[in-house]
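User: My collaborator sent over this chain with a note saying "see what the structure looks like." That's all I know about it. Can you take a look?
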Amino acid sequence: MKSLWQPTLLAALLSMAGCATTTKQPVALTGDIMADAPNAIANGPPRDRVLWEYRLAAAAMRQGKFDLAKQNLDDALLTLGGIYGKDKDAKKARSNFHAEAKKTFIGEPYERSMAYVYRGILYWMGGEPDNARACFRNAEFEDSDTENREYAGDWVLPEYLDGLATAKLGGDGSDAFKRAQANAKGVKLPPYLPKANALFFIEFGPGPAKFATGQYGEELRFRAVPSQVTSAELKVDALQIPIAPTDDVEFQATTRGGRVMDHILGNKAVFKSTTDIVGNVALIGGLTTAAVSRDRTTQEVGLGIALAGLVSKVVSAVTVPAADTRCWDNLPRYLSFVSLPLPPGPHVATIQFHDSTGQVLPNLTKTITINITTTDRDKVVFVSDTSLTPQTL
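Assistant: Without extra context I'll predict from the sequence alone. Here is the result:
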């Protein structure tokens, strides 16, 4: 009997332990995203590459470095497009013995949606509203459950822009407009103006943060970061246009189709707890049996049970149910949009950001000089409360 269970136990323990590997460690950070992100992408763990590309793209857009943003989003979305079922680390993370944070980061649904929203803006900025529309549709797709059809995406702006792009391309965008209006919370969306050639994409406030709770840190939850800015106003020529949020990224993080969705890695947690309890029972029972019995065969049976319990304890110890709290931490809280027709020539646009009382926050005011050179191509303006200013586009 001893000759049977000892080699089996050894093999089991060795398989649980695995082999030591050398991996890249996270790089030292300076606090400057424009320096840290390229360094992390080049020298950090490959599993974090997409996360840093997301972060760098958002920072680059706010500095008017749109080519840099496009380059990083293209690489990130290429990884995202090929990740499901192909990435070895993602397969490992789906097992019970690898941490979620060890897999290649692609983000939660709201993060993936935002990557497509940003890329859609950049496509439209480059004169490609058809490709922009495809990105906005992908943003909705990432937020929906296409397999079980339990819920559909409920972003407002991607749906609205899908329909606007369709209208500008000569199609009928009314269905997308209806879906966008149905998702809008207390906001009446403006009708499409196909001849509007100046499009303002506006974002403000800090996005949501992630944290873990639960006995094993297996529950992924989201925390809203207080936003000083709650609305904005656009002034251009003689126009003054109030800007309310159309989308709340924190709401998108914590819901799917309007349903609260704090993510819980329950299967791993239950597995860890069960194997730990089974191990305790087997260890105690087996050792007790071996200790009180004077029969050698019974003693060996007891030791075998105890060693099986040890294996169960090892299995429990190497089960890693902890949630992945890596976060695209420079996303905005709110998204909004304005479109209007402007004649050819230069125009000075001023965007003011307001607090919850409606007071202007003067230190956040942005001034942008827009030069309309043709009415055949839209002038796309991206504005964040953290954008560099003044800008000339």
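A starting point for your reply to your collaborator: The longest strand covers residues 345-354.
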